[in-house]
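Tokens for Glutamyl-Q tRNA(Asp) synthetase. Go.
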Amino acid sequence: MAYVGRFAPSPTGPLHAGSLVAALASWLDARAHRGTWLVRIEDVDAPRCVPGADDEILRQLGRLGLVPDAPPQWQSRRGALYETALARLVADGSAYGCACTRLDIAAFWLAQGQDRARHAELVYPGTCRPERGGLGARTARAWRLRLPDASVVDWHDRRLGPQHQDVNAEVGDFVLRRADGLWAYQLAVVVDDAEQGISHVVRGEDLADNTARQILLQRALDLPTPSYLHSPLVLAVDGQKLSKQNGAQALDLDDPQAALQTAGAVLGLQFERRAGTQIGDWLAAATHAWAARVNEEARS
């Protein structure tokens, strides 16, 4: 099977130290496998996107020598694909309309004696499932995937090892199209990965928790499941994941090779910088080291 990987940033601002680690890991994995590396701009959450951030991200990647093997794609231009996927799920009974708000869901669990923390995951209790009466006289606000009774997913992460999640118990039927009409991340990423032929997903560890949901959605749509590797996170001073929300600064690319070296160190790739070396030299050495890991992984 031909290797096709991707880096899929959200244009909520320029790349920062954390997002560079994910970008570099995905690029190195593609190069070590002698595969294809794509860039997809994940801009379906339009209210969070910053005008011009997509172009800035592509410019930053170019400065770092991380150039995709095909023109970038934008999720905001792929709505017809998501419409088709949702229509298929609705037609075969795998998706249904939901009228519940977050307050409705929180009230349900409070009535059960379970007061959820303000920012904790609200497990959807299936209130609008057809077998429970459906919408009744209410209007659908969102569309959800109807999980199978057996929703325990076991999968293997190339870095984190064996993973296990009971999606029914920990998440419940999850949203495919939001109440504001925007496409949910889970549907968009699954459809895009399949349509682009992505064989290997390399992304930040903060997204590992989404994988079980995406596997269930892949199964519902009869789509292949890629190989997954979740790269280590860069942490802020407070121990939280470095992100734009907690003040992550845009990459300083006055010295692109220094930025790559810093990201490489997070990935366990540390090379002494020698006078006169160029970005291409550093990337070649990093690719060689990553390929050695891949070969070791194949032998284990």
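The CA atoms of residues 106 and 116 lie 7 Å apart.
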